[in-house]
Amino acid sequence: MSSDTTNDDDTDEECTTTESFADHGLDDGSVLISRTYNRIAADGEPTFEPTAAFFDTLEAAFIWAYIGTIDEPGVPPHVEAAIEDARAFTRREFANDPDADLRTDVIPTFYQQVAGFHCAYRD
Question: Where is this region: Disordered (predicted)?
C-alpha cells in the first residue's frame, strides 16, 4: 500500500494513507482494508463486479469495518464525505476492468482514496 495521498496541499505533509485515521485512534489503516475484505467475504469467496450494487456493498463493508475499529460512535461527516468521494473515484477507476482483483486492487485503491480524501477533509 502506498503512503501517498490524493491531497496536493503542502500544509498537511504529515498525513499519509497509512496513518490518515490516526486522529481517530487507528495508527495503521491496513486494518480497515483487511476488515473490509473480510466483511465482503463473510458469505463466501467474493468477486468484483463494476456495478452499483457492488459499490453499495463495498461502501457498507467499509463503514462497518470503520465503526468496528474506531473507538468513537458513528461516522463523522468528514469521513462520510471521504467515503462518498472515494466510492465515485474507485467506481470510475474500475468501470472498464471487471477482472480487477477485489483483494489486491479494488479494496486497496478504495481505501487509499478514502484515506487521501480524509487527509484533505479532516481539518
Answer: 1-25
Looking up cell 469521513, which residue turns up?
Answer: 79
Distance, in Å, from the CA atom of 111 to the CA atom of 85, rounded to the nearest integer, reads: 11
The answer to whether the CB of 106 falls within 8 A of the CB of 100 is yes
Q: What is the mean pLDDT of residues 84-111?
A: 96
CA–CA gap between residue 6 and residue 100 (Å, rounded): 21
Instruction: Report helix angle 107-121 to 52-69, nearest 10.
Output: 60
The C-alpha cell at 100 is 480487477
Query: Is the pTM above the cut of 0.70?
Result: yes
Closest CA to 111 of 31, 47, 27: 31
Helix boundaries (H) for 1-123: 30-40, 52-69, 77-94, 107-121
Distance in angstroms (rounded) separating the CA atoms of residues 111 and 114: 5
Give CA–CA dist 70/49, Å, rounded.
28
- Domain-by-domain residue ranges, the chain? 17-121
